[in-house]
Write a structure and sequence with these properties.
With 469 residues, the chain is of the alpha/beta class. The chain has 15 helices and 17 strands.
């Protein structure tokens, strides 16, 4: 199940309720430390050097346990009781180790830190960052306020943060990104089930065990939907191809791609199973489509106004799910749409800012509020607010935080592929009864495929991402 995003107060109460049942702190520390070690092993290879910085609190205890569970690694522990001594030992260790064959485990300060770092402790954190050696932070990067995501004077800039039990609110803040790095959650550390709920929920890979469901043995293409895609324009025809290929990976029964006539040949020549038609007004109404995707590659300034009006009509009037992406987002009319019809928009922060008449930093400062406002103003639609830890939800209910993906997705075309992939599932009638699960799965799997590629070759292309979906 998705994990609630908790406050520091809730985390402390969760721990106290756990101890009240007879579960011991030492048993939880043992499991937490082994979880950290598991991530450290994935980040290193046999013979690599690992430096463990262990502070006075339970973060230090977790780090010490991790140090004991790193076989075939050259492990050194610095007991950081006094900063001057720790700095001297850090300098000595870094002098003899290459950044490419080393890892630092940061177990210096945890969520209990409540005042700015000063003096030697501040210098120690800064020296850790200056090593340029990858850092794995235990629970929270040392020096970061896990409630508001701001550094307390300064904070460790981790490459990966393994947080315990559930994500802390501050770790998801945009301001925290440079310190947290990739956020991983170790949920099973021996605590009782989390007694709290939250507006924000962290998506877990286990949420999609057995999903999508097995298709019936007597299934035929008529049962799995017919997706209509309106996409592409001169100079941007590749986006239409990527959207169609993403949709093919989701395996709806049929896909029809409608493109402006001047890009019909270059688009159609790259696709086989997708039916490609030059655009004519109202073509989206001509078939029994079960979903419509509009927007990828419709960026040419010289598009017919009637094509834009077609998309506006589809958004307002179509009884089937409509997914709006990219340029189409700028044309959507506000207000209600066809009653009970599903609507999904997929803006990145810049597009969300344009839609709401704000600046991008304002969107990033409160992404939850931005998602709610977008949904409210555009007829209660579902929103996929893309970016680091993509948010998914609408104006009411739970908002989901995606756990997968990495900065290598920041390349032209990745969003077009996602739009097609998502719409390909949304077109399938048997999946439309839980559209939010469709959205969560599509976003998670898109990011997970990128993560898998990065483990073997960080210089992958979108063709490889498509093949990995």
């Amino acid at each position: 199940m998705p994990l609630p995003v908790v406050s520091i107060k809730q985390m402390r109460e969760w721990e106290q309720r756990t101890w009240a049942t007879g579960i011991t702190e030492s048993s939880v520390i043992e499991r937490a430390g082994k979880a950290v070690a598991g991530y450290a092993l994935r980040l290193t290879k046999t013979g690599d050097a690992v430096l463990v910085i262990a502070g006075r609190g339970h973060n230090g205890d977790d780090a010490r346990v991790a140090a004991q569970n790193l076989p075939e690694r050259e492990v050194t522990i610095i007991e950081a009781q006094e900063p001057a001594d720790a700095i001297a030992k850090l300098k000595e260790w870094t002098a003899g180790h290459r950044p490419t064959r080393s890892l630092i485990i940061d177990g210096l300060f945890g969520i209990g830190l409540n005042r700015p770092l000063e003096g030697g402790w501040l210098e120690l954190v800064q020296k850790l960052n200056e090593t340029k050696i990858p850092i794995l932070a235990v629970d929270v990067p040392s020096g970061l306020d896990a409630e508001n995501g701001m550094p307390l004077g300064d904070a460790v800039c981790a490459d990966v943060t393994v947080t315990m039990g559930a994500p802390k609110m501050g770790l998801l803040k945009s301001e925290a990104a440079e310190y947290v790095g990739r956020l991983e959650v170790a949920p099973d550390i021996g605590l009782i089930p989390c007694p709290f709920d939250s507006e924000l929920s962290w998506v877990c890979p286990e949420d999609f065990d057995g999903y999508p469901p097995r298709r019936p043995d007597d299934g035929h293409k008529g049962r799995f939907g017919h997706l209509c895609i309106i996409a592409g324009s001169q100079g941007y025809h590749g986006a239409a191809v990527l959207a169609a290929r993403g949709a093919q990976r989701a395996q709806p029964g049929l896909i029809t791609l409608i493109v402006p006539s001047d890009v019909y040949i270059p688009v159609a020549s790259q696709l086989r199973s997708t039916m490609v038609h030059p655009w004519q007004s109202g073509l989206w109404e001509a078939e029994n489509f079960t979903a419509i995707l509009c927007g990828p590659g419709l960026a040419n300034y010289d598009l017919p106004q009637e094509l834009k009006r077609d998309i506006q009509r589809a958004w307002q009037e179509s009884p089937v799910p409509v997914v709006a992406d990219a340029s189409a987002l700028d044309w959507l009319p506000k207000g209600p749409t066809c009653p009970d019809a599903l609507r999904i928009i997929t803006p990145h922060p810049g597009e969300a800012a344009r839609m709401l008449g704000k600046k991008t930093p304002e969107i990033l400062a409160d992404r939850q509020a931005a998602l709610r406002q977008l949904s409210e103003q555009w007829g209660g639609c579902y929103v996929v607010l893309k970016g680091r830890q993509t948010l998914m939800g609408n104006h009411i209910g739970r908002i989901y935080v995606n756990c997968s993906g990495n900065p290598h997705l920041a390349q032209g075309g990745a969003g077009d592929l996602l739009a097609g992939w998502l719409a390909g599932f949304a077109a399938q009638p048997m999946l439309q009864t839980d559209i939010l699960k469709v959205i969560r799965y599509a976003v998670w799997r898109h990011g997970a495929a990128a993560d898998e590629l990065c483990r073997t070759n960080p210089h992958w292309t979108l063709d490889e991402l498509e093949a990995a979906l």
